[in-house]
């Protein structure tokens, strides 16, 4: 789906064009990309993964993947070059609609850490007016946007692979902005429209959304929020893959390495391990508790990590605790 970007005239602040710094659709309702025509759908099944390939237009496609051993559904989207031949800028969204009863509430993350409650058409420090009913409800989504149905004890979450704007404009509904191409400058300093090109045509963007659905609280096992944290860490810290001649390197590389002598607790990860003061052989170490309070009855609990003998390739002789100040 897509919003038509407002052309504006920039003579007054309340009539700015949608641009690099402003999201301002001309109307509050998005258009379907494939409006008036059917979506081309192809199914593929395999031993490890099933796929649904959707083609909405020549410039908007999507692959839905369901892996056999994962707790999420992957949406691999491809958008661009965005069509502007009708002299209209477009702001492309992915919208997900469910039957969950979420009222006016949804949740977005704060830089991958704390989840913040958002209420549609509301601000807790001033009286909200819906002059911009869509843009006024958009929030930054660094890694996750979430819905909760408290009556059914169900959470629906979307984990994104990059920072995007997102919102919930109706109960049980979520949308994320995935690509934009606009024809007017918003007069905030760039001096040009958000109309970037590559090879003489508009940019093509590709990314992934990971969808989870599960219980908010559990009697045993992990909560949905704990599973979401695990997925986010695996995607953020995914290993890099390199391809080269194996005969050239096989006898010259260390084929196995473990930096730790024992595993860390499931709710702890090493956030930083880097040289601090080289002359003093000092290292900066930061450990992160990856779950919030009350996200999981077990994994959200306070945990203690014994650093003595934890690392396999150096010994700790002295520790100085630091703050984040």
UniProtKB/TrEMBL annotation:
GO terms for cellular component: lysosome. Keywords: Hydrolase. SUPFAM superfamilies: Galactose mutarotase-like. Residues 16-187 form the Glycosyl hydrolase family 38 C-terminal domain. Transmembrane segments: none annotated. GO terms for biological process: mannose metabolic process. Residues 267-324 form the Glycosyl hydrolases family 38 C-terminal domain. GO terms for molecular function: alpha-mannosidase activity; carbohydrate binding. PANTHER family: ALPHA-MANNOSIDASE, LYSOSOMAL ALPHA-MANNOSIDASE. This is Glycoside hydrolase. The lineage of its organism: Eukaryota, Metazoa, Ecdysozoa, Arthropoda, Hexapoda.
């Amino acid at each position: 789906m897509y919003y038509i970007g407002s052309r504006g005239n920039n003579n007054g602040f309340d009539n700015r064009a949608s641009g690099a710094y402003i999201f301002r659709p001309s109307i509050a309702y998005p258009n379907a990309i494939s409006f008036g025509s059917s979506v081309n759908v192809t199914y593929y099944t395999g031993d490890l993964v099933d796929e649904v390939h959707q083609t909405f237009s020549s410039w908007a496609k999507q692959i839905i993947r369901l892996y056999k051993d994962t707790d999420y559904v992957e949406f691999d989207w491809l958008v661009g070059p965005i069509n502007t031949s009708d002299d209209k800028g477009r702001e492309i969204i992915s919208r997900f609609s469910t039957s969950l009863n979420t009222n006016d509430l949804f949740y977005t993350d704060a830089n991958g850490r704390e989840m913040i409650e958002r209420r549609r058409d509301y601000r807790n420090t001033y009286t909200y007016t819906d002059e911009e009913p869509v843009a006024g409800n958009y929030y930054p989504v660094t890694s996750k946007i979430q819905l909760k149905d408290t009556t059914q004890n169900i959470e629906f979450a979307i984990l994104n692979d990059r920072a995007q704007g997102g919102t919930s404009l109706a109960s049980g509904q979520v949308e994320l902005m995935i690509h934009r191409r606009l024809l007017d400058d918003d007069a905030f300093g760039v001096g040009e429209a958000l109309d970037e090109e590559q090879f003489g045509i508009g940019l093509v963007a590709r990314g992934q959304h990971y969808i989870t659905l599960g219980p908010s609280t559990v009697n045993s096992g992990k909560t949905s929020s704990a599973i979401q944290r695990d997925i986010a860490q695996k995607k953020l810290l995914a290993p890099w893959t390199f391809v080269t001649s194996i005969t050239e390197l096989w006898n010259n590389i260390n084929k196995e390495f473990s930096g730790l002598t024992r595993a860390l607790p499931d709710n702890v990860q090493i956030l930083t391990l880097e040289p601090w003061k080289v002359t003093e052989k000092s290292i900066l170490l930061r450990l992160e508790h990856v779950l919030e309070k009350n996200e999981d009855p077990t994994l959200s609990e306070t945990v203690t990590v014994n650093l003595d003998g934890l690392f396999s390739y150096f010994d700790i002789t002295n520790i100085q605790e630091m703050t984040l100040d």
